[in-house]
# Entry
Amino acid sequence: MDNFHIETAQNVTIHQNVAPLSTRIGAFLVDMLIIAGYYLIIYLILNALGLRLNESLYVFYVLLSLPVFFYSLLFETLMNGQTPGKYVGKIRVTKLDGSKPTFGSYLIRWVLRLIDISLASGSVALLTILLNGKGQRLGDLAAGTTVISEKNTISISDTLLVDIPDEYKPTFPQVTLLNDKDIQTIKELYLKAKRNGNHNTILKLYQKIIDITEITTEMPPINFIDVVIKDYNYFTQR
# Structure
């Protein structure tokens, strides 16, 4: 399942790590096992008591089934967008903008679950999720929600590492005055500023590095920061 991002009214980009379909199915199966276990326990208790389903006990059986009927609504409301299955799979229901859904949002998802999953055996939900691209079934579309993964996916851009050619020659040995946390912060801000064309941030980073390392250079700020990151990797990887 692909990630997606949206722009808020404040021009802030929200990135959502959409839960893989396989993980959602796995979470659903875990929830079904829990429900099956609940029914099994109830059956064993009633059987031990010698009770059998009849008209006089019908209301009693209906009451025992209410936790199952409201299962997803109760857990998602009480566990901040998670059922036990979602908790195991590290996925969560959230609004498209990353905010916490309201009870009304959970309620809409739960009501439309009847169409998404119950009546169509999950085929409608499966098809909608595959076609939508934002991890949304019909209930999510109506509620303005999606299901995201909370698992951390780390790429090289999220680490200190950068690709350095074998023949690379460092320019500024003073970069060793910086530490891993400094370089990680510099790299994150630099890449974001370069991507957004934010020259002021690049100038501030440039000046901060100069202040710490006391490097003297006539390099343009954007080239200088790029070299600093590479030089730091060169010295710390060897």
